[in-house]
């Protein structure tokens, strides 16, 4: 089975426990077990997704390893991340916090998205980019400092038929 599926399965179960209305006497031991399972999955897959993270449907992890998604990150539906990606807390004052990714966002290999930033629907974060500022919808961004190189969006990254017209 694909490592991303293991990590997502563990996340979905742990998140369901976290969001449940179970009595605390039942919920707390289940969360302890879920965190232990999360650590085992993290060690074997190199993927760490905290149970407090909010992830929409259709989330896809394309490759094995070195992926960290912080506890208060929000990821919209149909997003895709590659290996080496970190999505976590950073910043000071009002900018301190966790990222929010819109729908159909593609995040390239080894990219870092840090702080209270919003990534617009359909955006593409290029490989090895450092994102510490908001990204507009359908923007394709690269580098550090971040630079918008187009507004072609993520369709060609997420829909194989989009590029060929098939």
Automatic annotation (TrEMBL):
Keyword ATP-binding: no
Record keywords: Acyltransferase, Repeat, Transferase
Any Gene Ontology biological process: cysteine biosynthetic process from serine
Iron as UniProt keyword: no
Coiled coil: none
Top EC class, one word: transferase
GO terms, molecular function: serine O-acetyltransferase activity
Entry EC no(s): 2.3.1.30
Catalytic reaction equation(s): L-serine + acetyl-CoA = O-acetyl-L-serine + CoA
Recorded GO CC terms: cytoplasm
Family: Belongs to the transferase hexapeptide repeat family.
Designated name of the protein: Serine acetyltransferase
Organism expressing this protein natively: Muricoccus nepalensis
Lineage start: Bacteria, Pseudomonadati, Pseudomonadota, Alphaproteobacteria, Acetobacterales
């Amino acid at each position: 089975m694909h490592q991303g599926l293991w990590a997502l399965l563990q996340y979905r179960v742990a998140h369901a426990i976290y969001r449940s209305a179970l009595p605390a006497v039942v919920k707390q031991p289940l969360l302890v077990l879920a965190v232990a399972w999360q650590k085992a999955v993290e060690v074997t897959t190199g993927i760490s997704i905290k149970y407090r993270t909010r992830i929409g449907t259709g989330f896809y992890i394309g490759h094995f390893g070195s992926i960290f998604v912080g506890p208060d990150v929000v990821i919209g539906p149909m997003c895709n991340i590659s290996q080496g990606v970190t999505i976590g807390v950073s910043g000071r004052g009002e900018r301190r916090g966790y990222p929010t990714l819109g729908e159909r966002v593609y995040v390239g290999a080894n990219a870092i998205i840090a702080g209270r930033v919003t990534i617009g629907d359909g955006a593409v974060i290029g490989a090895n980019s450092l994102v510490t500022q908001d990204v507009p919808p359908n923007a394709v961004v690269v580098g550090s400092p971040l630079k918008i190189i187009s507004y072609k969006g993520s369709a060609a990254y997420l829909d194989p038929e989009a590029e060929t017209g098939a």
